[in-house]
């Protein structure tokens, strides 16, 4: 029985390390099994440098037909789980066919890597970056080892950032104007605004501002849209009167937002909306939704 178990053990230990792993910032990454691990953080155009260590078990020889490392950027749609779309694929050959008797270290380097999209773990999609080492073998399965890392990209302050002005109206019953100070917000920003009541002939019980994230994946008949309410902020409790104005001040930093992603590799988009909700005394809901752009500002 022990012999059978032993037959399925990998004949070597493979580990992948980054040259600046001790000094580089680490960020949490949620794995498929639900566990969270800390992995290195990179941005586009950086060098990814490190080494691969292969150590045969108990001095047994390891026959192989070549060793390679790949840097992969992949998108996986959950309705097509297991199929990865590679938008970045780089490879370095580490060793020619041969035999290993003792541990061996292989340095690797990928220079100024183009990583245009950010890592993302969504409801129906994930975008990931991995280093993948493959030890190819004849007659038996290849030995494969992965190492995840995360990519985040920064955006400069927008040169144009217009305010948002909108109206909500129900003929002869309600007329509200609201104004937000800008239309583009960074992840740690504050939404400032004002709501003006120009006509109030229905009894309003309360008013809320919601932040909503809308993730759309796929295309055509295979389009899936998932909307999450990330934050609810009560602006007013009780009835407003004509001429009254209500200030809005909503901090974004407590919420787990990502930047806005538009049509990433023709596979998915992530958009954010401010949703103003009014509830009258008969629990009827009136709302007005406005898209905002969210971006990552270098701190």
TrEMBL record:
It comes from the Eukaryota. The keyword Plastid does not apply. It is a peripheral membrane protein. GO terms for cellular component: endosome membrane; Golgi apparatus. It holds the Pfam family Vps26. Signal peptide: none annotated. Keywords: Cytoplasm, Golgi apparatus, Membrane, Protein transport, Transport. GO terms for biological process: intracellular protein transport. It is found in: Cytoplasm; Endosome membrane; Golgi apparatus, trans-Golgi network membrane; Prevacuolar compartment membrane. InterPro entries: Arrestin-like_C, Vps26-related. Belongs to the VPS26 family. Plays a role in vesicular protein sorting. Component of the membrane-associated retromer complex which is essential in endosome-to-Golgi retrograde transport. The VPS29-VPS26-VPS35 subcomplex may be involved in recycling of specific cargos from endosome to the plasma membrane. Component of the retromer complex which consists of VPS29 (MAG1), VPS26 (VPS26A or VPS26B), VPS35 (VPS35A or VPS35B or VPS35C), VPS5/17 (SNX1 or SNX2A or SNX2B). Component of a retromer subcomplex consisting of VPS29 (MAG1), VPS26 (VPS26A or VPS26B), VPS35 (VPS35A or VPS35B or VPS35C). This is Vacuolar protein sorting-associated protein 26A.
């Amino acid at each position: 029985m022990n012999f059978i178990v032993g037959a399925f053990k990998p004949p070597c230990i493979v580990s992948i390390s980054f040259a600046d792993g001790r000094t580089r910032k680490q960020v949490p990454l949620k794995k498929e099994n639900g566990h969270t691990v800390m992995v290195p953080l990179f941005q586009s155009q950086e060098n990814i440098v490190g080494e691969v260590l292969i150590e045969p078990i108990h001095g047994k020889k390891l026959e192989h037909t070549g060793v390679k490392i790949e840097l992969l950027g992949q998108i996986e749609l959950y309705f097509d789980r297991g199929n990865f779309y590679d938008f970045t694929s780089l490879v370095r050959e580490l060793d020619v066919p041969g035999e290993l008797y003792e541990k061996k270290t292989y340095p690797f380097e990928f220079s100024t890597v183009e990583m245009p999209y950010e890592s993302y773990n969504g409801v129906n999609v994930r975008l990931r970056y991995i280093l993948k080492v493959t030890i190819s073998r004849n007659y038996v399965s290849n030995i494969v080892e992965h190492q995840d890392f995360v990519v985040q990209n920064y955006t400069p302050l927008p040169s144009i950032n217009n305010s948002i002005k909108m109206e909500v109206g129900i003929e002869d019953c309600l007329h509200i104007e609201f104004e937000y100070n800008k239309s583009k917000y960074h992840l740690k920003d504050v939404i400032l605004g004002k709501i003006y009541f120009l006509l109030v002939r229905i009894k309003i019980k309360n008013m809320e501002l919601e932040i909503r994230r809308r993730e759309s994946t796929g295309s055509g008949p295979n389009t899936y849209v998932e909307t999450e309410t990330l934050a609810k902020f009560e602006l007013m409790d009780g009835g407003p009167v004509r001429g009254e104005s209500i200030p809005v001040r909503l901090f974004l930093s407590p919420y787990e937002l990502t930047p806005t992603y538009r049509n990433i590799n023709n596979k998915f988009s992530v958009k954010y909306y401010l949703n103003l909700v009014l509830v009258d005394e008969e629990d009827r809901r009136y709302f007005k939704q406005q898209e905002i752009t969210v971006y990552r500002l270098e701190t």
